Amino acid sequence: HVLVAGSDKEEASFSIFDGREWTPYTHPEFAAGFSHQGILKLHNGDVLLSCGQPQSEYPDILGGMLRVSFEDGKFTVNHHDSVQTSFRPWTIAEDPVDHTIWSGANSLDRIEFGIPVQTGQFAGDIWVDKVAVANNQDVWVALWGNGVFRQRDGEWQNMTEDTVIGEHHYSNILLLNGEDPIVSTDQGIYRFDGDIWAPFASPAFSLYRVGGDLRASSDGSFWINETHTDWYYRGLKAEDYPEVKKNFFRTIQVLKDEHPPVTRFYRRPAVFSSRSAMLSWGGGDFWSKTDRQSLTYSYSVDDGPWSPFSSARSMTRADWSDGFH
Question: pTM for this one?
Answer without folding.
Answer: 0.81
